[in-house]
Design a protein that fits this description.
This protein is of the alpha/beta class and 467 residues long. The protein has 2 domains: 189 residues, Lyase, Ornithine Decarboxylase, Chain A, domain 1, CATH 2.40.37; 227 residues, Alanine racemase (TIM Barrel, Alpha-Beta Barrel), CATH 3.20.20.10. It has 13 helices and 22 strands. The strands form 3 sheets. Strands 1, 5, 15, 16, 17, 18, 19, 20, 21 and 22 form a 10-stranded mixed beta sheet that branches. Strands 6-7-8-9-10-12-13-14 form an 8-stranded parallel barrel, surrounded by 4 helices. Helix 6 crosses helix 7 and helix 8 runs parallel beside helix 9. The longest helix has 19 residues. It is globular. The N terminus is likely disordered.
């Protein structure tokens, strides 16, 4: 995978009703429309998300009160705004109007079928990193001719499936992968279209877990080795050299690393062209950051201005692989306070969501804003650690947050559209949350909650031993 998730630059800890019926808690009910009951008060930070605002004191997803979502589908529950998703994609795509380009959504950020379906309908391509992701794009109605296949460990079976599907390009990440791909293509009688993912050795100034363009990274081929690899690939009858690719990291909030990396790539493109190896496209990857707390993300206008300056007068088609930038702001994790537990040194709000639902805070010390769905008076506010029921001290969603809450209250964990549900698990034998997509005044169940029985449905007990 090209990046596992996002990390906020700062660490956590820098502060700032009753159970529903079983069928509603399961999230297995049919789609229903819920209508707006009521303009905005602020939560614990300013939000860029137009899809989630307070109306008459209650947080809404578009026109739907989040309490209605909780009543209908239960908690924990991921809630997405279709308008936010659509606007994010169209804004990104429009930033490069007039340039030949293709936006390929990096689906590892959120691979839920309905979201892929939405982006496919908007004309998006897809950046995939596994055969499973390829199957998801196909199931969602995506165009395989708009797929780029990244990742350092593609299997022969995955290569063969992607060749059969007719994808746009393989982003090759090693000399060994090139040889394997050439052999698979030759065996199937096809030519494999390739780019090399070139590692420009540029520091993206982000969390070390999601910096992927440094020389010590497992990703890509070294810039110094790339020229010879292109020569080798150009001589292979089962390989069709198509482009060049880079991806230097995730949650990047400065332009300078992009400019430096792209400039190094273009110098190589020109060297190859002088030798007769002409590339059709340049893939600039993704990684543009979003605001989780107090970051100042690069604006699309500034990024597009830089790209236009670098590519002025050039003929190559541009490919982009945004993930978090398209989906991060478009989702919240809806959770209910089960227990308020005062302590001598800190207070705990134990909620029904946990690290298996949202891993980023535990894994990266990532910061997500947490807002009450219905605001109480600020005079009742205390500092809380918002924690889950998992048997780990590292099970927390937020630390040292000033909140006015009581048992039974609903909380919304903000900016949870990317690397949230995608990284969820069944740790402690917990069913994964359901997912709901809100479109105006309608709330649609797009993934039902797992049942406990489903968690062990594929497991087998030991055979009976004869006495």
């Amino acid at each position: 995978m090209r990046h596992q998730g996002a990390a906020a630059p700062c660490a956590e800890g820098c502060g700032d009703d009753t159970t529903t019926a079983a069928d509603r808690q399961s999230g297995n009910t049919a789609d229903n429309d819920v209508t707006r009951t009521a303009a905005a008060v602020v939560g614990d930070r300013p939000h860029a998300v137009s899809g989630f605002e307070y109306v008459d004191g209650e947080l809404h997803a578009e026109d739907v009160p989040l309490s209605k979502v909780a009543d209908e589908f239960g908690t924990p529950c991921y809630v997405y705004s279709q308008d936010s998703l659509t606007t994010a994609y169209r804004t990104y795509d429009a930033a490069f109007d007039g340039l030949p380009h293709l936006v390929c959504y990096a689906m590892k950020a959120n691979p839920t079928l309905a979201i892929l379906d939405l982006f496919a309908r908007l004309g998006s391509g897809f950046d995939i990193v596994s055969g499973g992701e390829l199957a998801r794009v196909i199931a969602a109605g995506g165009d395989c001719r708009k797929i780029v296949f990244s990742g350092v460990g593609k299997s022969d079976a995955e290569m063969e499936a992607a060749l059969a599907a007719g994808i746009l390009c393989f982003n090759v990440e090693s000399a060994s992968e090139l040889e394997h791909l050439a052999a698979v293509a030759a065996r199937t009688g096809l030519r494999a279209p390739i780019s090399f993912r070139v590692n420009p050795d540029v520091d993206p100034l982000t969390h070390p877990y999601i910096a992927t363009g440094l020389k010590e990274s497992k990703f890509g081929v070294a810039l110094a080795d790339a020229h010879a690899l292109y020569r080798r690939a150009a001589q292979m009858p089962s390989i069709a050299v198509r482009g060049i690719d880079m991806h230097i990291g995730s949650q990047i909030t400065e332009l300078a690393p992009y400019r430096e990396a792209a400039s190094r790539m273009l110098a190589l493109v020109d060297e190859l062209a002088a030798e007769g190896i002409t590339l059709e496209h340049v893939d600039l990857g993704g990684g543009l950051g979003i605001r989780y707390r107090d970051e100042v993300p690069v604006t699309l206008a500034a990024y597009a201005t830089m790209v236009r300056a670098l590519f002025a007068g050039r003929r190559e088609r541009l490919l982009f692989e945004p993930g978090r930038r398209l989906v991060g702001d478009a989702g919240v994790l809806l959770t209910r306070v089960r227990v308020v537990k005062p302590g001598a040194s800190r207070n705990f709000a134990v909620v029904d969501a946990a690290m298996n639902d949202l891993l980023r805070p535990s894994l990266y010390d990532a910061w997500h804003a947490v807002d009450p769905v219905r605001a109480r008076g600020s005079d009742a506010a205390r500092h809380f650690d918002v924690v889950g029921p998992i048997c780990e001290s590292g099970d927390f969603l937020a630390l040292d947050r000033e909140l006015a809450i009581a048992e039974g209250d609903l909380l919304a964990v903000r900016t949870a559209g990317a690397y949230a549900m995608a990284m969820s698990s069944n740790y402690n034998a917990r069913p994964r949350a359901c997912e709901v997509l809100v479109d105006g005044a309608s709330a649609h169940l797009i993934r039902r909650r797992e049942t406990v029985a489903e968690l062990h449905a594929h497991e087998l007990r030991l055979p009976t031993r004869p006495h």
